[in-house]
Amino acid sequence: MKRTVALAIALLALGVAPAMAQKVYIDWDKSADFDKYETFAWAKTPEVSLQDSSPLMHSRIKNAIEYQLTTGGMIEADGKPDVYVTYHGENETRMNVNTSNWGYGHGAGWGWDPYWGGGYGSSTTTVSEYDVGTLVIDIFDAETMQMIWRGSATKAIPSKPEKQAKLIDDAVAKLARQWEKKYKRGKM
């Protein structure tokens, strides 16, 4: 019974790092007048987008951002916008090391006992790698070209494309809620 419980705890510990909660961070220009921003357009930043290296992922991210901005009240501009939007993503491979101890031993100070022995058990160490992705969305004032808002979301990347798409939608939605706190404060 104890071995089953210990195995369950070890398996749970292996899954903790990749299942970490999505972390969202924002920063904004405290002097920016968010009330004046009504339209947006995409900034030309091919060096940071995924358009060439991963066109499907680029499309998912861009569509999610456009959806959140337009449902939040902004209008995509054909001409000169109030703000420019861009994004970039990063991927980092992380390692999870887990050591599990099984069995029993003597407490400190007991040492080796020829009758009882030194204890029974073993240790097993497992190493697993997982990818963590960070999505960064930047919004610039179109007139001054100064950044007025930056949001980033970080989480372990699932291997299945449909789960990746959901992860993008969730990340952009969380970031959009933070943008709307600034954007809609004077519009209600």
Which architecture name of the domain at 21-96 and 129-183 does CATH use?
Answer: 2-Layer Sandwich
Counting H and I runs of at least 4 residues, what is the number of helices? 3
Largest sheet: 6 strands, mixed
* Fraction of residues in helix: 25-40%
How many strands?
A: 6
CATH first level of the domain at 21-96 and 129-183: Alpha Beta
- Beta-strand proportion: 35-45%
- What is Rg? 25 Å
Main sheet strand line-up: 1-6-5-4-2-3
Secondary structure class reads alpha/beta
What would you call the shape? elongated
* CATH T-level topology of the domain at 21-96 and 129-183: Double Stranded RNA Binding Domain
Helix-strand pattern: HEEHEEEEH
Measured distance between first and last alpha carbons? 59 Å
**Average pLDDT taken over every residue:** 77
Q: Which blocks of ≥5 consecutive residues have pLDDT under 50?
A: 1-19
Key features of this structure:
single chain, 188 residues, alpha/beta, Double Stranded RNA Binding Domain, 29% helix, disordered N terminus
